[in-house]
Write a sequence for this structure.
DNA sequence: GTTTCATGTAACTTACTTAGTTACGAATCT
DNA sequence: AGATTCGTAACTAAGTAAGTTACATGAAAC
């Protein structure tokens, strides 16, 4: 998200993984590796060579957090429905009973995340930015 | 959950961590360590010495998944709101914007989990158990 | 009261996952 | 051609969780 807001703020030109890595205090390769999924989903585009780098693939109003989450392969809930003891009825019952919950919960979370766009986050940032001033903008 | 359903099915007597560990193919110490939180929350009770072991602390109808989740120290969502670059306005904006989502999502999940009780899971198990028969009940 | 059984917990080992790093090929612009 | 930047493989380091061993503590049985 941090990186994406930066990319929203500088839509006119591409940012290199080197620059993006600096923003979040990490390594260019980690950045490339992490946002590769975003590229595959069309959320960002990457260009090689001189003047290359990363840019938003479409308007930030059209990029929802649900898409970002999915593109990064994130799970919405911190538990899975993979059986660990196949054939155990207790486990099957637990998984089945929780599955209704899981499905509805994931639907709800996805629905909520799909209503928040990158533009919303960027607007929120801009508000704070103009309030506090450029000098405080560390990183 | 697996362990708790077993304990629901054998409310009359205590189960040792040894037995519980067998159910989920793990180690007695791991079991004790894991469900220590459940004991502290009163969801289960433990007794030392001869004939000791673990039992439900109260009726399974009065034990909700929300309580279990909280007692185990589980998080309901797979991301945190801890700032990693304190002072960065971008990060602050992202966290603030997501916080509304997080708070409502957690409230929703907790609400849903509080409506599912251990008795519900056990009843589901019992249905399957009677349907398929005792011979299939591996572990 | 001693023996047996079971939890409570510390300490250590092992396995796994993720982040970080180095290296280099491929693509692109000047 | 040379400089730049992504793409990706391969390796290292760090952090986390599970598994294991060991032993003290407490409780029941005899």
């Amino acid at each position: 998200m941090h990186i994406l807001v930066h990319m929203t703020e500088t839509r006119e030109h591409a940012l290199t993984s080197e620059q993006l890595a600096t923003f979040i205090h990490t390594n260019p390769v980690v950045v490339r590796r992490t946002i590769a999924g975003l590229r595959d989903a069309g959320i960002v585009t990457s260009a090689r060579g001189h003047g290359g780098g990363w840019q938003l693939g479409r308007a930030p109003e059209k990029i929802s957090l649900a898409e970002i989450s999915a593109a990064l392969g994130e799970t919405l809930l911190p538990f899975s429905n993979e059986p660990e003891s196949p054939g155990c009825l207790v486990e099957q019952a637990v998984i089945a009973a929780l599955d209704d919950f899981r499905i509805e919960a994931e639907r709800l979370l996805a629905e909520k995340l799909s209503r928040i766009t990158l533009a919303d986050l960027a607007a929120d940032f801009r508000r704070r930015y103009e309030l506090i001033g450029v000098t405080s903008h560390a990183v």
